[in-house]
Amino acid sequence: MADAVPILIGYVDADRRYRFVNRAYETWFGVRREDIEGRSLLEVMGADAYERVRDHVDGALEGQSLTFEGEVPYQAAGLRHVEAKYVPDVAPDGAVLGYYVLVTDISARKRAEAELARLLVRERRRALMLDLGRQLREESEVAAIADRACAVLAAQLGAQRAGYAEVDLAGVSTQIVGEWGGEGVQPLVGPLFVLDDFGPAMSDDLRAGVQVVIDDVREDTRTRHSLDAYVALDIRAFVAVPLVKAGRLVSYLFVCQECARTWGVDEVAFVGDVAELIWAASGRARADAALRQAEETERLLIREVDHRAKNVLAVVQSLVQLTPFVDKRQYVTALSGRIGSLARSHSLLSTTRWTGAGLRALLEQELEAYSVEHESRVVLDGPPVLIRAEAAQSLGLVVHELATNASKYGALSAPGGVLEVRWTWEAGRLVIDWREGGGPTTIAPARRGFGSTLIQNAGKQLGAQVSHDWRAEGLHCRIELSRGALPHAGGGERSAAMTGAPPDGGLQDQRVLVVEDEALVAMELARVLALAGAQVVGPAGDVEEALELIESSLIDRAVLDVNLGGRMVTPVAKALAERAIPFVYLTGYQEPGLDDGPVLHKPAAPEALVSALAGRRVERV
C-alpha cells in the first residue's frame, strides 16, 4: 500500500535514521530504498535540506505532531515545495521511539496558486486602470492628471515616489510636471534636470524608447557612475518607462524606491500602462484647452469685426449726412473720395493685422493720384513712423481733405506747383509739415468749409493740434500728434526676441531693468532700449540677480522674461509691483497665464516693446 501512493512515506527512529521508506523515495532521490534505509537524515537529505527541517525533527522526537509547508532543496531531488506531516511513535511508557513521515510534493499546486494570484492582481489592476481612466477624464490640467495617476501608481506598487516628466525638443532637459511622494520625500516638480546627469547610458536607453529597470543604482552599470545624482534624491531603485512619439522622447513615467528592489515583470508592465494613460489624458486635456482658446478667439474676432464694421458704417453714415450737397456730381465726387480714403486706410491696416499703418505708406496712398503723373511735384520725407490702428482712419481723412483742397485751389491745381510733406519728432510728439508752393496765390478762406471742419474734428480725435498758415506762396499746415504714433522700424536685423530696427527716443533717460536668461536676446533688448533713450540696468539672467538689482539700483520700469532657467519670474514681478514700478512681460509662451502686467510675445517689434514700456511714464524723484 505504501508503495502504491505518490508521496513519501517513511519511518525515522530516535537516532534520526531511516528505518523504512516507500518506493517514492527511490523516484525522488534516484537511489534504491536499500541505500536509504539505515542511513541518517543528514546523509540522505543533504545539509541544506536537513537544516530546513531540523527544528521540526526535534519537535517530532519530543512527541509533537507537526504539519508544515516550505521549499526544501533536497540532495539529488532538487528544490521542492512540500507539505510534510511528522507523527511521533510513542511507546506505552511514553518514550518516543521515532516518528512517521508523510511528505507531499505540492510544487504544482503552489505554481497554480501563484499563477492564479498573478492573474487576480492583473485583473485588479485592469479594473484599476479603467477607474483611473474615468478619474483622469475629469481633470483639465496636465499637472492634475499626472498627480492623480502617480498617486494611484505609487499606492499600487508600494513605491516611495512616482513622477511624470516631459522632455524638451532636444532631448537634453526634463521637467517633472506631476508627482506623488511619501512623507518626507523631497518634491521635484518645477526645476529643470539634465537627463545625462543620471547616467548617459540610462538616458540613451530612454531616448531609444527602452524601458529602464534598475534594481540597485549602485550595482547597475548604467547608473553606478552617477550615484551622486541619485543619492541627492534618495533613490536606490527605479523603473522609468519612456514615451517616444514621432521618433522623439517626449515624456516618461517613473517609480522610485529608497532601497534596493527587484521589480516584477507585471509591475513594469503596469507602469507602462499608466504612462500611456497619462499621455492620452494629457493630449485630450491639451486639445480641449486649445479648442476653448480657439472658441474664445473666434468670439473675440467676431466681436471685433462687428465692432469695426459698425464703426465704419457709422462713419460712412455721418459722411453721407454731413457732406454738403451743391449738385449731384459734386456730392458724389466728394463723398466717393472720402469713402475711398476710409477704404485705403482699412486696406493698409488689414495687411498688418490692424497693428497700425506706416505714415509714408498712408501718405503715398492718399497722394498717389497726384504723384504718378507728376512724380517730382510731391516730396515725402521723414523717419519711419507707425500710426496706430485707431488713429490711421482719422489721419487718412485729414490727408485726403488737404490733398483735395490742394488739387482744387492750391499747389496741385496748377502746373509747376509742388507739395512737400515732411515729418519729425519734437519732444516726443510727431510733427507733420504740409507745405505747398508754386501754385496760385493763396488767401485765407472767408469762411470755414466742410473740409476744414472735418480736418479740425478729425485732428481732435487724433489728439492733434492742426494749424493753417495761409501764405501767399502756398498753404503751410502743421499737424502735431501727441498720441497714436510710434517710431517704426524700417528694416534691419532680426533676433530671437525682436524684429526690425530699434526705435529711438521713446524712453529718454528712463532706467529699464532687463531680466532675460538668453544672452543674445538680452543683448538685443539692451541695444534696442539704449537706442530708445533708456539706461539699461542689468541684464539679469536669474531671479536672484534681478532681485538684487531691484534692491540696489534705481529702476523706473522693467522688461521680464517669464521663465528663467525653469523658474518662473513671479518673485521679480511681485517685488516690482510692491514698489509700484511698471513692467512688461516678454515671453515665448503663447498663453503665459499672466494678468498682472502687459504681455508681449517673442518675437516682438521694437516699437511695440517701447510703446508698452512707455505706456505709463514715471518721473524719478
TrEMBL record:
Domain of life: Bacteria
InterPro entries hit by this protein: CheY-like_superfamily (IPR011006), GAF (IPR003018), GAF-like_dom_sf (IPR029016), HATPase_C_sf (IPR036890), PAS (IPR000014), PAS-assoc_C (IPR000700), PAS-like_dom_sf (IPR035965), PAS_4 (IPR013656)
Catalysed conversion reaction: ATP + protein L-histidine = ADP + protein N-phospho-L-histidine
EC number from the UniProt entry: 2.7.13.3
Modified residues (4-aspartylphosphate): 561
Gene Ontology BP terms: phosphorelay signal transduction system
Domain Response regulatory, first and last residues per copy: 511-617
The protein's enzyme class: transferase
Domain PAS: 1-64
SMART domains tied to this protein: GAF, HWE_HK, REC
Keywords carried by this UniProt record: ATP-binding, Flavoprotein, FMN, Kinase, Nucleotide-binding, Phosphoprotein, Repeat, Transferase, Virulence
UniProt GO molecular function: ATP binding; protein histidine kinase activity
Limits of the PAC domain: 66-118
Protein name per Swiss-Prot or TrEMBL: histidine kinase
